[in-house]
C-alpha cells in the first residue's frame, strides 16, 4: 500500500476534523482520502477514526498513531525537498579553456531543458583530469587519442599571412641555404600539449629536418596567437579557432592530427547524459565534427 499517502490523508483529515475538508486540504478527492485511510487501517490492524460520530473523531489507537504519522509525512516532505535540491545542484564540468563563452552559454541553456544545471571550470588538459580524479568537479571533458574519442576536432595550422596551398608541408619550413630568412615556427597551444598530439608533431618535425626550436609549446593561447599575428609563424589549431582569430587555416600535409575528447565523471549517469543528450552542444563548444 501507499503508506505515505495513507498517512498524509490520515493527518489532514484528523487536523481538519472531517473527511470532506481534510481531503480538500490534502488536495485529493474525498473518496480517495477515504480509501487511503481505510487501507491504512487494514495495514495497521485497527480503526483510526470513530465513524459513528458526525465529525471525524479519532479512536484511542488513532490518537496514538497520529504523532508518528505526522513525523512520517514530514520526513517524506523533507525527502522530496532534498531530492529537488539535489536535481538542481549544478554539475561542475571541467572544460577546455578554448571553449567560446557563447557556445558554453548555449550548452548551459540546452542542459536546463534536461533538468541539468552546468557550472563550467575552464582548465588545461592535465588540470581537467586532476579535477576529475580529486572530485573537484563532477565531470570533465578529458583529452584522449582521436580513435578513442566521443568528440574529435581536426587540427591544422593557421597563419596571419595567406596560405596559397591546399595543405601546409612542414618540410617547407626548413631554412634556406643562405639562412638569411627567419625560421618560421609552429606554435603548439596548451590545449594540444598532450602526447597523442604533441609527440606525433615532434616526430614529423625531426623527420623533415626542422630545428627543435621550430615546433614549440606556447606559454598560453594568447601568447601563441600574438606570435603568429606578428610574424609568418603558424599556430596549431582547429578551423573554428582560426576563424575566431581571423587567421588562414590549412591541414598539415604530412599527417592528420585531431584532438579527441571523452567524459570522465564520478557518476556513470552524469557521463551518459553528457555523451548523449548534450552531445551536439558539447561538439559546438569543442569545435568538433558533427
Automatic annotation (TrEMBL):
Domain of life according to the entry: Bacteria
UniProt KW Transcription keyword: yes
Keywords: DNA-binding, Transcription, Transcription regulation
Any one GO molecular-function label of the UniProt entry: DNA-binding transcription factor activity
InterPro entries (UniProt xref): LysR_HTH_N, WH-like_DNA-bd_sf, WH_DNA-bd_sf
Gene3D superfamilies recorded: Winged helix-like DNA-binding domain superfamily/Winged helix DNA-binding domain (1.10.10.10)
Domain named HTH lysR-type: residues: 1-59
Stored SUPFAM superfamilies: Winged helix' DNA-binding domain
Transmembrane segments: none
Protein family: Belongs to the LysR transcriptional regulatory family.
Identification of the protein by name: DNA-binding transcriptional LysR family regulator
Organism this protein belongs to: Saccharopolyspora gloriosae
Amino acid at each position: 500500500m501507499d503508506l505515505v499517502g495513507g498517512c498524509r490523508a490520515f493527518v489532514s483529515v484528523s487536523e481538519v476534523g472531517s473527511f470532506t475538508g481534510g481531503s480538500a486540504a490534502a488536495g485529493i478527492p474525498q473518496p480517495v482520502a477515504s480509501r487511503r485511510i481505510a487501507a491504512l487501517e487494514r495495514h495497521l490492524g485497527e480503526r483510526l477514526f470513530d465513524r459513528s460520530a458526525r465529525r471525524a473523531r479519532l479512536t484511542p489507537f488513532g490518537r496514538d498513531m497520529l504523532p508518528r504519522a505526522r513525523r512520517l509525512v514530514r520526513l517524506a516532505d523533507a525527502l522530496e525537498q532534498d531530492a529537488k535540491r539535489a536535481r538542481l545542484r549544478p554539475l561542475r564540468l571541467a572544460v577546455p579553456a578554448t571553449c567560446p563563452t557563447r557556445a558554453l552559454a548555449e550548452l548551459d541553456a540546452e542542459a536546463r531543458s534536461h533538468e541539468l544545471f552546468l557550472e563550467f571550470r575552464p582548465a588545461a588538459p592535465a588540470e581537467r583530469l586532476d579535477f576529475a580524479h580529486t572530485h573537484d568537479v563532477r565531470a570533465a571533458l578529458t583529452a584522449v587519442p582521436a580513435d578513442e574519442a566521443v568528440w574529435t576536432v581536426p587540427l591544422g595550422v593557421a597563419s596571419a599571412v595567406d596560405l596559397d596551398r591546399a595543405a601546409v608541408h612542414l618540410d617547407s619550413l626548413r631554412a634556406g641555404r643562405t639562412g638569411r630568412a627567419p625560421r618560421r615556427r609552429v606554435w603548439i597551444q596548451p590545449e594540444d600539449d598532450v602526447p597523442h598530439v604533441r609527440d606525433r608533431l615532434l616526430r614529423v618535425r625531426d623527420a623533415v629536418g626542422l630545428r627543435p626550436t621550430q615546433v614549440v609549446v606556447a606559454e598560453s593561447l594568447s601568447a601563441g596567437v600574438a606570435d603568429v599575428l606578428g610574424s609568418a609563424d603558424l599556430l596549431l589549431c582547429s578551423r573554428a579557432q582560426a576563424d575566431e582569430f581571423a587567421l588562414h587555416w590549412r591541414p598539415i600535409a604530412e599527417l592528420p592530427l585531431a584532438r579527441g575528447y571523452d567524459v570522465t565523471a564520478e557518476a556513470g549517469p552524469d557521463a551518459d547524459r553528457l555523451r548523449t543528450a548534450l552531445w551536439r552542444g558539447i561538439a559546438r563548444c569543442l569545435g568538433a565534427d558533427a
